[in-house]
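Can't paste images in this forum, so I'm doing it all in text. The chain is below; anyone willing to post the predicted structure tokens underneath?
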Amino acid sequence: MKFNSDIDNFLPLIRFNYYSRMKRFFIVVLIALSACGIQSQLNRTFTGKDLAFIEEQLRMKASHISQIENGLSKAVFVKTESLRSTTINQGQGTLDPIRSPSVDKTEYFIFILDENGQVIKSEYNKEYERR
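Text version of the structure:
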């Protein structure tokens, strides 16, 4: 009987260890996913840089630069790309293939610059429009 009580005392430790490892795993995954997004990459890459550096990295000129409050300015870079329609794979032997529509993808890279021309904030938006 003593053997069973030792196992019963050991099982909660195994369960606790499993759940704490799973909790740590999910925390690491959440941190990795939040660090890999386009928004966070823009902030890391361009914060503190000037407009010339942004234009060099994006390989395009700012589409629109406007003054906003307190000496801050806003630079907008617009990138448009046409995405053609494609067949959605449903496996072998389908009689009527399903096709995705062709769209125009527009990406907006928005940078808020301080009075010295340094980036203090960046934003990323994208829109899809069917043709």
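The CA atoms of residues 91 and 108 lie 36 Å apart. Residues 2-35 form the longest helix (34 residues).
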